[in-house]
Amino acid sequence: MQRRTLLTSLAALAGSSIAPFARAQADYPNQVVRWIVPYPAGGGTDVLARTVAEAMRATLGQQVVIDNRPGASTNIGAQIVATARPDGYTIMSADNALLAFNEHLFGKLAFSPEKDFSYIGGISRFPLALVVNPGFEAQTLKDFIAYAKANPGKLNYASPGNGSPHHLAMEMFKARTGTFITHIPYRGAAPAMQDVMGGQVPCMFLDLAAGLPVIQSGKVRALAIGSAQRASQLPGVPTLAEAGVANSEVFAFQGILGPAGLPAPVVSRLNGDLNKALASAAVQKRMADFGMEALPGTPEQFRQFARSEALRWGPIIKATGIKLD
């Protein structure tokens, strides 16, 4: 009798602890959702996150607040999310750096892209274009390569930071073309782009999410684009392959992660609202305006896409010898 009473009490206690958690999942979301962006405000990642967050507010029924936490090749923001409570109220933008590059760039990470995050879904991918200041003497990519070879070490390029897609795109370009161009890292795409426009640094790889308006306005000049086909918004700009640099497709991609252990109903809710946002007219127009390609789908599809990019970039990063620690 005593044993039966003890078991009954334990079962009741377990049920009382599980019930509030189950109700919290059923009521999700019932408070503000914090969206970590591991880059400064004003860059392509930030613009995209704010656009999608605005669309998601309508279906989630809660505010989605952007919290910019730049630094350490996205590792600062990633650490915040990896250690957050897995309740769906802390999510983040995740891109090539976190999901494809950092495991190859750092000897040791405080978290694993595979084990310490819940994959929620993809947002978009967008190609990078090699751009120069309008006053730079090279008019074509062929001219640019010839200038770089004739002036080894005298040409600088900007990037949003060490280990960014823009940084590694140029390093791959250098390896493919046999050129020596010095890296000048910035804290975000916006300040890097400003200095290329101002002529302080002559060139950079620039993602279309941030760069399309300044390319179209003539504030920078695009020599080539790192996509498989030409961008419809820039029909006069050749791809890198068309301009003679083969096997050099370079693009940035974005998706959403949460901490590991997010309950399946929460992941499903966030993924569904994300896909609704990507299908909305406002988000589709904004993406088209910035040369983006939407990446709707399931959490597993996004995870597989990210892992395929990690496998693609691993040998490239190893060949360049770049390390960030």
Automatic annotation (TrEMBL):
<feature type="signal peptide">
    <location>
        <begin position="1"/>
        <end position="24"/>
    </location>
</feature>
<comment type="similarity">
    <text>Belongs to the UPF0065 (bug) family.</text>
</comment>
<dbReference type="InterPro" id="IPR042100">
    <property type="entry name" value="Bug_dom1"/>
</dbReference>
<keyword id="KW-0732">Signal</keyword>
<dbReference type="InterPro" id="IPR005064">
    <property type="entry name" value="BUG"/>
</dbReference>
<dbReference type="Pfam" id="PF03401">
    <property type="entry name" value="TctC"/>
</dbReference>
<protein>
    <submittedName>
        <fullName>ABC transporter substrate-binding protein</fullName>
    </submittedName>
</protein>
